[in-house]
Amino acid sequence: MEFSRLEAFCKVVEAGSFTAAAEVLGTDKARLSRAVSALEAELGLRLLERSTRSLSVTDGGQAVYERARAILGAGDELLQFARAQQAEPSGTLRLTCSPDFALVAANRWVTGYLQRWPQMSVDMDFSSRLVDLVHEGFDLALRVGALEDSRLAARLLGPMRYGLYASPVYLARAGVPATPAQLREHTLLMFSTGSGRTDWTLLPPEPGAAVERIERIERRGGAPARVRAGSISLLLEACRAGLGIARLPLHTVQVHAAAELLPVLPAWTPQPVPVHAVFPSSRFIAPKVRAFIDHAVAHFDPPGG
């Protein structure tokens, strides 16, 4: 059903004639008559009684008019609401991410977002599980790594960059590796999500050179991993304590341990990991969600990072 036909019919009823309604709408009488006739045909109901001298609304037409006015009024309200929503973010943003990523970047983004939009509030959930955004009522999730749920919309925020680090105490005791292959002679502190497999992919300093992969697979040997955990915080503390070499986010080291750790194999770059903002719908993005995503993209790297 075309809303323009409903609007034409309502204007004719309110103006009392096709001629007067045409003047209000800035159109011609014949076009209005065709629109009302098309609406009558679509509904299978006679709405107006016409004669050369008068026009009256049928009982069915009166009922349709009342409902049509409500529909058109609701449409106007919806349009006004949508325009207001696009103007400026407001309300509460419900956001979820892992505790580790909060330490790496999310806390900084939320603080800056609230400073930029003082009328906003944030309800922050820290969870390492894969939260169901729709059923649990979240506006947005920050996820690190490959995405698994194709039903959700997503926007790439940027790459999370890593480096290899160790404490001066550990390097004085175990020596400084000169090549990626020598990492196999060292104690490694490795991140794992519980799949039983952990690995580091190191990108070479020269474009086109062979990529080094240092891996530890459960019960299959390889580099010894004294700590294998799904917690950046634990790996950071273990690295500070001199327990081994860890792959850590550059953000985390810069903010929390820049004076305590030394880079290992700085010419070799660990494979970056994508960070996405995930949200329920890409068709209609609430201003508060769009504003947070734009802020995160603009401030993905910390100042001086």
Short overview:
The protein contains ten helices and 15 strands. The protein is an alpha/beta fold and 305 residues long.
Structure overview:
Strand 3 (91-97), helix 5 (99-116) and strand 4 (120-126) form a beta-alpha-beta unit. This protein has helices spanning 3-15, 18-25, 29-43, 59-87, 99-116, 133-136, 168-174, 232-240, 250-256, 287-298; strands at 48-50, 55-57, 91-97, 120-126, 140-144, 153-160, 162-166, 188-191, 197-203, 212-217, 225-229, 245-249, 262-264, 269-270, 273-279. It contains 10 helices and 15 strands. The chain has 3 domains: 3-87, Winged helix-like DNA-binding domain superfamily/Winged helix DNA-binding domain (Arc Repressor Mutant, subunit A, Orthogonal Bundle); 92-152 and 274-298, D-Maltodextrin-Binding Protein, domain 2 (3-Layer(aba) Sandwich); 162-271, D-Maltodextrin-Binding Protein, domain 2. The protein has a 5-stranded mixed β-sheet, covered by helices on one side. Strands 11-8-12-7-13 form a 5-stranded mixed β-sheet. The chain has a 3-stranded antiparallel β-sheet with strand order 10-9-14, with no helix packed on it. It is α/β, with parallel strands linked by helices.
User: What is the fold-level CATH name, i.e. the topology of the largest domain?
Assistant: D-Maltodextrin-Binding Protein, domain 2
CATH architecture of the largest domain: 3-Layer(aba) Sandwich
What is the molecular shape? Answer: rod-shaped
Please give the CATH class of the largest domain.
Answer: Alpha Beta
Beta-strand segment tally: 15
What average pLDDT do the residues reach? 86
N-end to C-end Cα span = 56 Å
Beta-strand proportion: 25-35%
The rounded Rg comes to 31 Å
Strand order of the largest sheet: 4-3-5-15-6
Spans of at least 5 consecutive residues with low confidence? 217-221
The string of secondary-structure elements, in order, is HHHEEHEHEHEEEHEEEEHEHEEEH
Give the tally of structural domains.
Answer: 3
Number of helix segments? 10
Structural classification: alpha/beta
Give the helix proportion (percent range).
40-55%
* Main sheet record: 5 strands, mixed
